[in-house]
Queue: 4 jobs
Job 1
Amino acid sequence: MTGQQTLALADALTPPLEDGDMLAAIDLGSNSFHMVVARYTLGQLRVVDRLRETVRMAEGLDARGGLSPEVRHRALQCLSRFGQRIRDIPPQHVRALATNTVRRLAAPQAFLVPAETALGHAIEVISGREEARLIYLGVSHAQPPRPGQRRLVIDIGGGSTECIIGAGFDALERESLQIGCVASTRRFFPGGKLSKKRWREASAEVAAEFQQFASTYRALGWQEVVGASGTNKAIGEICAAMKLTKGAVTAEALPLVRDRLLEAGHIDLIALPGLSDDRRPIIAGGVLVLEAAFRVLGIERMQVSKAAMREGVLRDMLGRGSEADPRETSIDALGQRYGIDRVQAARVEATALRLFDQVARDWGLDGDNLRMLAWAARVHEVGLVIAHSQYHVHGAYVLEHSDIAGFSRQEQQFLAALVRSHRRKVPKSAFDALPDRLLSQARRTAALLRPASRRQRRGRCPARAVLAPLARQPRPAAHRSGRRARRHRRTRRDPGARRRLSRRAPPRARPPGAAAVTEASSRCHRPGIGPVQSVPSQGQRTDRCATRSSPTRTPPTSTVWL
């Protein structure tokens, strides 16, 4: 089944986007929480509301990955106010994304569960490179690049900095560094003290982070540089207020801004023109990171864009569920990169989707579950590139820890859980990484991929046996052991073994007074047929592991599961 056919089936289960529908994108940044509400009209997005609150999540993050109660309370109150604004928007039209600080939490679910309750919508955690892709998407749609030219986009957030080189609306290179305005200010200027010595030491350390990819970026090249997010915007306003530029940031203006910062001696005493009060505590870290980027990458001039990741999230929501869905492209790229047998994957996908069609209504599965099932079927053998033994375990690891464009961390964990459980024994921890709201859907979707891959792998399983593992009858209460268990396994592998055993010669006569009671019980591998009552016929040879009883005991009636 092709990707277009799968997409058509998923769209049939998902309400389409119509004119007049409202969309909302929420960015849970390390410094500020942003929300943009837009109306979809004639294929375009018209922004109707913007909300921003300074939360500074990165300030409450400790070395052990915990979040301070004060910052936690501040974040939940902000999300509660956001939730009131988008109360009437359907869940499928709202996407909330958490970034660096939530990624670094030791127990992210401890924050995400109450946060989703306060917001009233699900919250996804995205990787640094996925954040970079969305940033470039928002900037490129707000300021379309010239045809044939490459653009460098730099976004300095509260906890991380993203650098992207792209052409048109596609990101070519993406990098995310664990340095941001809030984190760098706390790390390099503890207590708020500013000095030239501390600045030199901090600048050398930050520059080393950019050196990791500087040669690759310079070799690729770019024609213009754009700065996104609030920190770059604030530095551009400072340069304009100091009469250094008309709003852009240049290599000549940055040292003058730095010198004005160091003259203050302390963060609380900074008095730069054009600097707002809420930016004053973190501006030193932002200037430090931007100056290092200019020096290492050789940047001379940077324009400032008002767009950022939240605008990119809105654009990405339009692409999802259409032919421009980036997740479809990413899955195809995975298959090509790891040499997956696409013919086999297509057979498994077709079988899984037929099973999905039979149970989707009763199990409450929607179009998103169908897409995840189809993508898991296409990459369920990705682990074979590592080793044939335990390839489902290797494949789950690859899917969970790779940077896959278009997927959030929860979506990658969903895919990994399906691949991990599609064969062999399913461990209890297979679905532990998923939030509670996805557990039921993940388990039911895995129950469809498992028999589909099993049928295509064996090739001779009857059609009626595909769904049998989903509703198989329970095993008999008595447990088999010893030779009886070995015989049971042999008859399951070879259906003719039971017939051959029945043709054997009758047993030799036993000594008088010894009544032999036999129980011939076996279970055929064919599911779907109920128990049949049977008694050993006279003269028929009984099982070697027959149970003996006293002469006065009545032979029991055996149950044969067919």
Job 2
Amino acid sequence: MCGTLVVGVCVFGTDLIARLDSERVLVLASPDYRFASALGELSTRLLATPDPLFDRLRERVDTYRELHRLRAAALESFPVADTVLRQRPFKYGKTLFAIVNLAFLRHYFDFKGGVEYEPVLRDFSTPEEVADAVSTIVALANEHRPLESMDITFPMAGLDVQPEFIQLLNYGRVVSKLAEVQKLIGSIGYSLVNVRSGRTSVFCLRPPTDEVEYALRLGFVRGEIGGSSSQLHVARGDDRALFSILTAVESMVASFADKMVEIKDAETPYRRLRLLLPLLPSIFEQLGQFKFYEDVLMEERLTQELELPMRFADGEAWTLVEHLDLQTFHRAWRVLRFLNVLDIALLKRHQDDATLLSNSLIRVASHEKHVELLTAFGLGTEQVRAFLDLMYLDVRSPGHVDVQYRPFLVVNESTMQIGDEVKTTRREVVHASSLVAVANIIPNVQRSHQIRFATNAEAFVTIAAENLRSLVPKIRTNAPVKQGTQRTDVDIVALAAETLYLFECKHSVTPTGAHEMRDLWGDIQKGVAQLEVACEILRERLVDYLAGWFPGTDRAVASHVRLKPCVLCSHRVFSGLAIRGVPVRDHASLSLTLGDATVHMGMRNENNEVRLMRYRLRTSDQPTLEDLDNYLSTDATFFRMFRPHMQPYSHLDRLDDSVVLARNTFVYQVSQEAWQARLDEIGAQRLADETVTVGPTQPPKG
């Protein structure tokens, strides 16, 4: 291996190292001391080779050696994990799903029950971290032997949260963290160093540059800000009465709870809550067509990131997968979500009964029951099959396991001896109601099944071109550029008096973790490379291309036109970064810059009113070319406004008692006073304050 790598770097340079990273050639899924020894030998050889050509390879080999050390040290505290994962029946299946459900219930639904289980989750910061850990454990257990009914669905009194379970859950947390570290190292070029050894080892995860981490964190911060502002857009743009699904369900439960639920095995330690709902198609039809406040709010958030299919013709059906269009899928999902929110509201009424609560935290149904339910929703046979293929996480072919992306786990049948009879269960489906209730389902389906709406990418180019056209009328889309063997195409070319703007548009689903960021980073790098090729060709033949794209262009003027490339993303992550001189920007900030350029901040009072302090990021009513140039510069006003509020810090994760993972990153901290002072400092124009009433209305009583 050593000699091959050295020769490869001599021939192919740093491009080979980037390929080694992306293909994870220098890392294994679990510690392997022979492989680690080979890396050590390679490191020794590289130290004896002072040629700067090998500096990058030296750094990457050192990082992967530290990754192996981190993995070995962190997993040393879980010696029984593999044994527990191999055991059948797998005794912690039910408890895993119950605990993740409880974590989401207590965080998102003001759930007070289950407080006695809080110590189980003391090492987790968010319910999403619990879901990651549970997903990891399910995947690892299933690798040893596909899970079946006896592993997860058989009745048991209470939850089994003995120390062994807590250790297993934390094992899932650590393995999940290590996988994220590995992906950041392999996909984006992060490095890992051991900054302290001894009784407590501290490993520090560092970005390739501070600006990469800054742009990544700022993207997520802006996503949260955009999510909050969605309430304002909904309040301004929709004059219909919008009811919250939560208040609608609570009103329904208050009136009809006794008719919608029963307690099974009421006088036993196995008592549990069961929903009683008639399968009336008319009810499901009404629910499927009705939009709650949360639906409209989610659509607004997805629209900001261009994650919903964008229509050019009214009434056009968008194919999600074969036999199922997006509208039908979403209608069925809304009903399914309603039923799970109803389940939560009914369970909430019984949360003081610890036994009933613990026995009702997972829901189990047969595959046939799901088919019957979806048929009652109005779906045809092929639509039902397609819908369940999207929702099911089948142990027979699980792929990437994430209980938030695909919240319904399908387990195998169990065969057992009962007296003189051999009985086999049906294939059963397990889910946690809170995971269904809070799922951001449209992006999740796209992520888990690698679905990309081709029309979205096309529409993104069209929308961006129209935004630019108001400022730069001379525009061509999908413009081919070629010379000899070099060829590419540019999504948007826009000619101003002295500048040719080149935009390469990249439409991707907004990432939720390192797994998706690998694809996004690859898209951005590809866009930069395409623009570099285009600029290289255009520098030699610019006059000819301008004459062809924009007939009548003065050739003498064209010879002095400068090139200004930009990678334009549909999402905010990495926006504000410059890669080899090419700025990375996003749809939301470009639309703001070429639109009213207004930003605001305010707090909601007890009457759901928000008084907004507003600023315009320019002094003129309409945008100018100077504003566009400023936006594409390294000192853009839009991104400067965040700088004082993004503070560097080291985020610490204690993986066990003796291993700490530190990450050099940034945190957003701002007050309204500091925000106002920064906007005044950068010369933004103060506008009149605005008061907006936000939030859903209340459903009529009765």
Job 3
Amino acid sequence: MKKAMITMALLALFSCSDEDFLKDTEPSKKESPTARELRLLEFDSKCITLSTFGNDPSGSNRECLQNQINLAKANGYDGLHIGAIDFYVNVTFATDKSLKIPSDFALIMEPATTLRVTPNSAAGYALMDIGGLYENGADIHDVEVSGGQLIGDRILHNNPVINGHLVRIRSAHFVKMEGVTMREANCDGLYVTGNVISNQPNYTQPSNIAIHNCTFDSNRRSNISITDGYAIEITSSTFKNAGVNMGTSAGASPKMQVNIEGDRYWADPEHTQLVWLKHPHDIKISNNVASGGAGASFYASLTDHVLIQNNSADTPIGYTYGDNISILGNTVVNPGGTGIAAGFNSATSTVNHDNLIDGNSIIDCNIGLVLNNQKTIVSNNKFKDCASYAISFGHSKDNQIIGNNISSTVPNSSGIKVTNPTMADNLEIRKNTIFIDGGTTSSGISLKNLNTAAGQENFKLYIMSNTVSTTGLCLLTSVTGAEVIDNQFITMNAFTISSARNLIMKSNSLLNNAPTANVNTLLLKDNVETNTIALNNIENISTNANAHATQIMDCANLNFSGNTLKHNMTRTLHMTNLTDCTIAENNGDIDTVSLFLFGTNMTNCLILNNKAVLTPHTRESINGVVIIQ
């Protein structure tokens, strides 16, 4: 049979005389998914024992089916066709009794063909093996399995060990499964792995595996597990209820719809020499639908070069350890949970890099996305109504959050938010649109405790060219090295910067849009390190006499210069307890305001060339000295 990715499904069982079988059976012809006619032996069910419960104690059904697979192969058929039938298969009555599919073979089943695992207490079995230690030890290749329903024994399995797959692909090549249903396995519905690990003789990886239009439902551990292999595609399939509890059969971790998880170790203490024991890579998961699972939907860990694209899910997608992971165009709707998880929170790890998260829609989640590690781009994603926050990040280096659209009407929700101490070294937050209508306690951008540890003094966080509108606030607290440049911020509570160091806020537009509130547009407080606020347009529309365009409190070493301040009530720039600060070249559009500048307890401060645009051009009260120019 030509090498052309072929379809997998599970088999049925029989046992009868080869001579009688060939004499009574004519070959059938069916169209292969490869668009060529296959010469198939028609399955003879006379030797199958049918029952409504757990039959085949001696394995006669299994032997019957295996014999006909072997017979078809030995007599030059392309494969075996099984019509509509429902029976049990005992694959545990003796050692290594899984159904075995040979090379260059197609097992074609009808939608109503049903093979059920006889309930058992064994461990380590599979209903069907494609690849493994048979056919004289050679790797199996060119296998096609299509149609049929394969049903495991998880509900009645009498052994706490989490084992027993429906289909196991081991070091096989050019395998295709088309339209197969795999459900209720005591372990995984489909398990893809190598015969041995890489440091043992005769190691080969499975490769060129295609899973198309299949259904996976209620398998106990994961619906699909991939621990080794490359050139693997999982497309247009349905995944349901991975790892859920069923009666007395509790789901088993990781409870994922598709779990990709290799095995590797570092050969040196410096983590420069990576040794793979099992290496899944070059894997595509696309156009699938996942629902009802107890764990994540499509997840990559200890892998690389994985594409997760155009899938729909209701539990998280993402990765823990991996590089060159692309998560593109997926939709995740997960109330109360996370949309995308990207990496793990480590300041030193180099295993996650060169990843891309682009064009996804994350809707009605609690947390939209959590980003960690390095050299990852989060771009052009849509986050809607994430109840806690749309984007957060842990330890982050050389990452970019660019061009995302974030909106929420959920009370107390946030756009981009970080609260736990972490680092951001060369992190760009750029050209995002954030609209949060979640009340006065919501936030557009809220970042706390960034780059506060020793050695992080020169780390940089770039917040550039974003449009942020919120009914709540924006906040930078205990942040080092932020450069906030060319953004538009519209708030109804203050944009507050506190305990910052090495901060530059330049060329931004800030508007407080609360008409009557006692709220500042920009509040600077407790900033005693070197910070610069320059060339910003800062406006407050409030008619409240205690609201200000900018209020500065308890600060030192601040350069506040070249800003344009607009307010039509009382004090436009209100300053209290400033030391060694420069307040210079600021312009005020003050209308009927009584004071452009007001300052008390100003020590060693330079206040120079600040001017209002309306008469009187400048009106200042600094430490009780009123100046009118």
Job 4
Amino acid sequence: MSPSKNLRRRFMGSLFVGMLLCSAPALASTNSGPIKITPDGMEIWNVNPDHNTVSVTGTQGVNENTLITEINVLRDPWTLDIHPSNGQVWVTSKRDDAIVVIDGPSRAVIDTITGVGFGTFGICFSPDGLLAAVTASGSDEVFLVDVATRNVTDTFSVDRRPHGIAWYTDNTRFYVSHLLFEETTSSAPMTKFSSSGGWSEETVIRIDQDANIFDHGGYPSGMMSIIIQPAPADTVLVIPCTYINTLDGGLVGGSIEFDEITQSGIRPVDLINDQSGFPEAQATIVLTADHTPVSGTTAIDFKSGKMYIANLSSGDITIMSGNVYAATEDSVMRCGEGPLGVVAHPTLDRVYIFNWLSREISVINSLVDTMVAMVPNTTFEPLSTNLLNGKQMFFGSRDSLSTQNRHSCHSCHVFGTSDSRAWDFTTLGSHKRSTPDIRHLNVTGPQNWTASMDENQDHEFGIMDLQFGNGLIVGAPNPKLGPTNAGLSQDLDDLALFMSSLLHRPDTPYQAAGGGLTANAQLGKAIFEDPTVGCVNCHAPPFFTDSNLSNNPYILHDVGTADTVSAIWDTTGMAGYDTPTLIGVWDSSPYMHNGQFPMIRDIFEFGNTTDLHGVTSGLSTTDLDNLQEYVLSIGAPLGAPTDVINPTTTPMATSDVKLAHAGANPFAAETSLRFFIDEGPARVQIELFNLAGRRVRTLLNHTMTRGNHTIGWDSRDEQGRAVADGIYFARLVVNGEKRSTAKMTVLR
């Protein structure tokens, strides 16, 4: 092992004797998370994001290790907290932007708190129970709610994607972590709030990159749950996270290696001096330092002088003991699929693990660190067998998915989105590439910035090249743009099915209150649709892209960012890039293929001086602001599916192998069609005809997987001309057999 690796394990001496892990059973500080234990220690409550429920499990007596009940709440519940004295349980809803208030003893939903931002995520009561801190990950806001009145008392705008919350013992301060941050930021933010002279955002603590992780830079990412150590060591906040290394790849550093892309670990922050570690070289505990096969660290709790650390992707728990700055690994214990939270019992020798994707609670005896029970914690399964398996594949890193269980799809596409980083893929035959948001992947045509893939199953190459796995297909896969890879592996088909279920919301935090465009966005829309500016020529609604699987070769554009070097390094050998969809683009910065612009307007103000990316050089500062506001307001087309499949989203039945309207009809400019394929892979064609029976346009001609699909039509013909008002027919053909026809009316 190199000297730099040994630095992470070195004991730091008497300076930290007072920070040794404490065996005191109770935690005075509080933190947000997906699983909590009641103050009396009798019950465990956890969220079920896929089910839109919370579950209650007993810990003692007749209900020991037994699911007691499951309670319906709003959509996408990701965290909850249990009040220290009044018996209430508050649950966030990320999809419905609200807090559900439950009376714990009666299990009754007694209130819903709104006005807590867009994408409400984290919630945590202050230790005295007077306030609740709430994070809104979409609108980048933090709220304080008065528990007695349930009114918002303070609102703060913060750095990007606030998630985890930890309150300090004395109720005078709390800390917020941030899940993602842009490539242009050299460190990850941690925000401190203080009540000195009234509540305020006191400071932003920068968690700098650690240059001593395997001798390569590592940026902390995916900072979700955070926790303060138990007293007397409660001057240290601990962040479970994944370190991502974007420095290697050929341009600056060496080639991409399997043990250098990502690392799982914990990062301590000194709360006295508000800094991360001291010194920086010894501030990180890397769980993978000795090639321990774990990945996706998300949560931690303390018990009996030990740390229990959940690893989401590898599906296990790392148990460590000793000083948090130089802890040693005791063991790694397999638990279930997707462990997302950990909670230690205040009096019993028990630690409970919430296994999100295997729908169970692991119960560990903390005296001997053995698994004593696996408790099912749901009463129904909302996902199909294939979809659930695909979801487990996406978040998983075991077996054929990676080397040493280190990497998963989730590692870069954090919770099915993006890590907001640009990676150097030079040694893989490409160049610097910003991680794309993969929501609505199936409706935007070819995939990757250079249209080098034409189906989700082609991400088999990502498993092999970026995750260093053996792949899911037995034998060699077909080329990316060759014969289909669908049907060659059930696991891969299931992974593709899950990827196709990742969708954006129809609303965005930049829209007007109640939905729709603001006045400035309306002005920006007029600029966007102005033919002399030209935005709409490539970003055509309803999916705001001209990327189309029916075009061969696929459409690539040089908007002033392609050069000779990029063309040589791109696997297509072509200068130009596929047009990304603008659906949900508000949530996918930094922008462009290399992540060079942090804001939409930067693309036009600094990156389009030659007017290759629309004619924008004549736009005023106000015009650019309005154009940006409109683009940031673009959500999923109204009427189209806009949720990951869950109990409130019912797929079309197998018997309904037909076209169905997913958008407006009649319509003036754009609509969309939804269809279900009951066999896969299948060659699917969708053609449009006018009343005279003349073919107007081929919308789709491609091999598709089994499942639900959506495709849009912008009321234009094959040549890009707007069609005349009237009635048109869409015909669905599957494997050469006509299956269904849908009538559409264009009425301007």
